[in-house]
C-alpha cells in the first residue's frame, strides 16, 4: 500500500515510500484489545526465561553499567559480535569483524539499500516477497524483478532466464521458512543458486531471520555458505524470533571489502546500536542453555502451527495451504472471495490477517492471506478462525 | 573525512558517505585503555541513579514484559510519547501524536534527510556544524550553504543575505550550546530568525540535544516555539545526555502534515524503536525527581567545565576559547601549530581531541579542536592536558 502524501515539500524518493498494512493492523490491535490478530509476526514474549532475564538485568546494572549505559562501537559490542560469529553463522570465512550489529535485521535491509541501490540498480526479489524489504528498498528506487516461488525455492528455469536476459546486481532472498510463503529452499537449490550467482556475479542479500525456527530442529546451511564469491554475499540474522523483538537487535555478515562503507552508513543512520540491549543479549547468550532454548521455541511454534492447521481444516475446509517446515506463518488461499471484502469483513468482526497483495510489488496474490500462529493462545486462535469462517461464509454464499 | 572506498559496486550516493573521526577515536579508546579522550561526546554513565534503575528494570521484567519484550508502534511507545510531550517540549501545538520516538536523535536526522533532501535541495548549515548532521545528510547529496556562527548565534546580516539570494529549503541548527562551537543563540536572535524563516518559508530542523545542559539551570525557549509556520518546523531531542546514551533514544516533534510520511520512513528504516528501552525510560521518568535530576547533571557538567578551563589556563595559556553557558564541550583554538601535526602528536602520546576541520563541509577551522569535559575524571583531565601541552610545546618551539 502506498502512503497517501499531502501535497507538501519533500524529496522525490518519498513518493516511493510504502507503509505496511501489518504495522497499521498492529496499531489497531494495540488500540482495540478485542481484536484477534493473525497479522503481525509477533513472537510469544513468554518464551524468554524470566528468572535468567531478571538476574542478567541485575548484573548488567550492577557490574556492566559503564559499558551498557554508554555509546558504543558503530559495528557493535565486541563480545556480542564474537558470540554471533561463533554460534549463529555458518559461512566459513566468518570472524567477529565480519559481524555488524544492527537495529533489527530491518535496519540491515535499509543500510544495504542505501549502499547498493540507485535508480539503475536491478534488484531481483522472490515472488511473493517479505514486505519489510519492499519498504526498505523502495525509497532508493531500484528496478525490481521477481522470480516466482515454488515450495522448494525459486523456479530455477525462470531464475536462469532472468539472470541471462538482465544484468541483475542484487538478489534479495529469504531461503528458510520464507515470509510470507513459508517455503524453504531445498539443499539442492541452495547449491545450484549459489553457483549461478557466482557465475553471474550477483550480490546476494540472504535474509535468515527465521533460520532457527525449524519445527524439527533442523538447520539448513545458508546459501552464502556455498558461495565462492565471498565478496558478494551478505547474511542477515535477528534476535527478534529467538530471544525477543523488544531488544531490537539483528546483525549482518558483511564481506571484508564492504565493511568500512557499511560502518560509515550505520554511523550516519544512528551512530550505533542500542548498547544496553547488546550487553543484555550477550549476557543472556552466556547464561542460557542455547540448544535447549532453541528446542523449546521450535517445539512451541510447531505445536501452535498444528493448532492453526487443525482449526482451519475444521472450520474452513475450503482454505488451501502447504505445510511449512518451520517459521511462524501459514500462507493461506481463501478461494472464491474478494480479498478486499474478506479483509474488511474480518477487521469489522475483530479478526486480522495480512492480505497477500501486500507481499508483491505488483499487488499479486489476491487470493492469499498470511496468518501468524505464534502469538495468539489456543482459545483465541479458535475464536479468531471462527470469526474468519463466519465472514467467509457470509461473503461466499 | 571522506571514507576511502574500495573500487567495488555500490550506489552513487556512497561516494558522499562520511566517516566520523570521533567514532574512529572512540574505537581507539576502547582498544587502548591508556588513551585519555577529550574526543567523544560521552556523558558520564554514573549520573543515572543506580538504585532506581535497578528497581525499574526489575519491575519492567516482572510486570511489563508483554509490552517491553515485543514489537511496538513505529511512532513510539504511547506512554513515553505522552511524557515527552508534557515534560520535554515547549512548542505550543504539542501533543503525544506529534512526538515520534527515534533511535537517538541521529536517526531523526537521517529520516529528515531521507524525507527532504534531493540533489536540488538547498540546506543551510551553521558554520561550524554538528558532524553527525553532515554524516546523516551527505548521502542524500543536498547543496550545502553555511552561515558563520557568532557567540550569540548566526551572523544575522549574512543569514539574511543567504536567504535573500537563494531559495533555502531547510535550515539545520543547534541553537543551544552548539556542538562544536558551544555558542548559544540569544533570545533576540531566536525570535528574529524564527520570523525570517516564516517569511521565507524555510523548514527548520532544530536540534535540541543539549537543551537541558545549561550550567545555571536556565532553559532557552526553542526557536520553533516562536514560529508561526508550525507546519515547517521540527524539533529533535535526546535522552542520551539527560539519562543515558545506552538506551539509544531520542525523539522528533513532527508537524501534522508530515506525520504519516515520517512514520512510513521510520518503518522502512527499522520498524520501531527499541521497545524495552522505551518502557524503561518511561518508568524512569515516572520515578525520578526530574528537576533534581537535571540540576545534578547541570552542576556536574558545570564543575567539570571549570576544571578543564583552569587546567588549560594553567598548562596552555596560549589556548583560546570562549566560556560556554552549557553543554559538554570547549571549542579551543591552539594558535601557531598545524592541526594535523598536533592531532597526530596527541594520538601518539595517548590523548585525543577532535580536529575542528571535521565540523565543516569545507574543512575550515584548522586551528580549532573540540574538547569534551564530561567524561574524564579530574586527574585524567589533568594528565590529558599535560600530554597536550607537551606535544604543543614540542611542535611550537
Automatic annotation (TrEMBL), chains A, B:
Keywords: Aminotransferase, Pyridoxal phosphate, Transferase. Gene3D superfamilies: Aspartate Aminotransferase, domain 1, Type I PLP-dependent aspartate aminotransferase-like (Major domain). This is Alanine-glyoxylate amino-transferase. Coiled coil: none annotated. GO terms for molecular function: pyridoxal phosphate binding; transaminase activity. It comes from the Bacteria. One of its GO terms (biological process) is alpha-amino acid metabolic process. The keyword Chloroplast does not apply. Its cofactor is pyridoxal 5'-phosphate. Residues 53-388 form the Aminotransferase class I/classII large domain. It comes from Leptospira wolbachii serovar Codice str. CDC.
Amino acid at each position: 500500500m502506498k502512503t497517501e502524501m499531502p501535497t507538501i515539500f519533500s524529496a522525490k524518493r518519498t513518493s516511493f515510500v510504502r507503509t505496511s498494512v501489518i504495522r497499521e493492523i498492529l496499531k489497531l490491535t494495540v488500540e482495540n484489545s478485542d481484536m484477534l490478530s493473525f497479522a503481525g509476526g509477533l513472537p510469544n514474549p513468554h518464551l524468554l526465561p524470566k528468572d535468567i532475564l531478571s538476574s542478567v538485568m541485575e548484573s548488567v546494572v550492577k557490574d556492566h553499567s559503564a559499558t551498557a549505559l554508554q555509546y558504543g562501537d558503530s559495528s557493535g559490542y565486541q563480545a556480542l559480535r564474537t558470540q554471533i560469529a561463533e554460534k549463529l553463522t555458518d559461512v566459513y570465512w566468518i570472524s567477529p569483524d565480519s559481524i555488524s550489529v544492527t537495529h533489527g535485521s530491518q535496519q540491515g535491509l535499509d543500510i544495504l539499500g542505501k549502499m547498493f541501490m540507485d535508480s539503475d540498480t536491478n534488484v531481483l526479489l522472490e515472488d511473493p516477497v517479505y514486505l519489510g524489504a519492499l519498504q526498505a528498498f523502495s525509497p532508493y528506487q531500484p528496478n525490481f524483478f521477481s522470480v516466482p516461488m515454488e515450495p522448494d525455492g525459486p523456479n530455477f528455469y525462470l531464475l536462469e532466464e532472468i539472470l541471462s536476459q538482465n544484468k541483475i546486481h542484487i538478489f534479495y532472498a529469504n531461503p528458510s521458512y520464507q515470509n510470507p510463503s513459508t517455503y524453504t529452499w531445498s539443499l539442492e537449490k541452495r547449491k545450484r543458486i549459489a553457483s549461478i550467482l557466482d557465475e553471474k556475479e550477483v550480490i546476494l542479500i540472504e535474509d535468515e531471520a527465521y533460520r532457527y525456527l525449524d519445527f524439527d530442529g533442523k538447520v539448513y546451511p545458508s546459501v552464502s555458505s556455498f558461495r565462492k564469491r565471498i565478496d558478494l554475499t551478505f547474511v542477515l540474522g535477528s534476535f527478534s524470533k529467538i530471544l525477543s523483538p523488544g531488544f531490537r537487535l539483528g546483525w549482518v555478515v558483511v564481506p571484508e571489502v564492504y565493511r568500512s562503507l557499511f560502518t560509515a552508513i550505520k554511523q550516519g543512520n544512528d551512530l550505533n546500536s542500542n548498547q544496553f540491549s547488546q550487553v543484555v543479549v550477550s549476557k543472556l547468550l552466556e547464561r542460557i542453555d542455547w540448544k535447549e532454548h532453541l528446542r523449546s521455541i521450535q517445539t512451541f511454534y510447531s505445536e501452535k502451527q498444528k493448532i492453526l492447521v487443525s482449526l482451519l481444516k475444521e472450520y474452513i475446509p475450503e482454505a488451501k495451504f502447504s505445510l511449512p517446515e518451520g517459521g511462524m506463518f501459514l500462507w493461506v488461499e481463501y478461494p472464491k472471495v474478494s480479498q478486499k471484502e474478506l479483509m474488511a469483513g474480518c477487521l469489522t468482526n475483530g479478526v486480522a490477517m495480512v492480505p497477500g497483495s501486500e507481499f508483491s510489488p505488483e499487488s499479486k496474490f489476491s487470493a492469499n492471506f498470511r496468518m501468524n500462529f505464534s502469538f495468539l493462545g489456543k482459545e483465541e486462535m479458535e475464536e479468531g478462525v471462527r470469526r474468519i469462517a463466519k465472514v467467509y461464509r457470509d461473503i461466499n454464499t
